[in-house]
Design brief:
It contains 6 helices and 10 strands. The protein is of the alpha+beta class. It has one domain (2-233). The chain is globular and about 50 Å long.
Length: 234
């Protein structure tokens, strides 16, 4: 039942068909990296396709904000795998249009064509997905920058060094509050509520990592890293 609900949502938005590689990799599946900042710390590289998708979505959000048309709540995004033609979720999140002030444009989606430090939560800085994951995967980062959350990501995504267990994909969409979410009977679903709904369903159907929950992919078997009951057995 839950898998069918998930699959229908993915089908409605063609997620498996339109997702793109998250990372830039070589032919052997090793993620490439680049130097960033004054300290030239090494950072995992997003794929060109991933960056193009994020820029395409956030351009819509910025234009919507500048013209005060208020069509969108923000960007819904997912990291996952493609297995047997289906999208398998690993992480779900959002980057909202408005920041913490009085309906100001969020810094997370501002000036992204020139500044990749925040990049709609997938930025190169620490406290953002790529920056914090890089600290756990690559040498050249201070120990205090390595967090349990992103060490769990690293254990899930990589076999050794920067070699991926399997290709990791990314999908994003500019979400309208009028869009119908995963619970179709509910109807129009705001982005903040949709995120909770998607996480709830995804947490019941497979290899999903979110906040303190972490899993390791090993020959397609899911084993707990933190003493948490494996999601697949719930």
């Amino acid at each position: 039942m839950k898998q069918a609900i998930w699959d229908k949502f993915c089908s409605r938005f063609s997620i498996a068909e339109t997702c793109v590689p998250l990372f830039a990799t070589d032919a052997e599946g090793n993620v490439q990296h680049k130097p960033v900042g004054k300290d030239q710390r090494p950072i995992l590289k997003r794929s060109d396709e991933c960056e193009a998708m994020i820029l395409s979505v956030t351009d819509l959000l910025v234009d919507d904000w500048e013209n005060r048309t208020n069509q969108f709540d923000g960007m819904l995004y997912m990291m996952g795998l493609k297995e047997a033609g289906k999208f398998v979720p690993l992480y779900i999140g959002k980057s909202e249009t408005f920041g913490k002030g009085d309906r100001n444009l969020s810094a997370n989606i501002k000036n992204l064509h020139k500044d990749k430090s925040k990049f709609a939560r997938w930025g190169d800085n620490y406290a953002y997905h790529i920056g914090d994951l890089s600290a756990c995967v690559l040498l050249g980062h201070a120990e205090e920058k390595k967090t349990l959350k992103y060490q769990s990501w690293a254990d899930c995504l990589f076999t050794q060094g920067t070699h991926l267990c399997q290709p990791v994909v990314f999908w994003a969409k500019a979400w309208k509050p009028a869009d119908v979410g995963i619970w179709e009977e509910y109807g129009a679903t705001p982005l903040a509520f949709l995120e909770y709904m998607l996480i709830g369903v995804a947490g019941q159907i497979g290899s999903y990592i979110y906040k303190s929950i972490s899993v390791r992919i090993s020959s397609k078997a899911i084993t707990p890293l933190t003493g948490i009951t494996p999601l697949t057995s719930r």
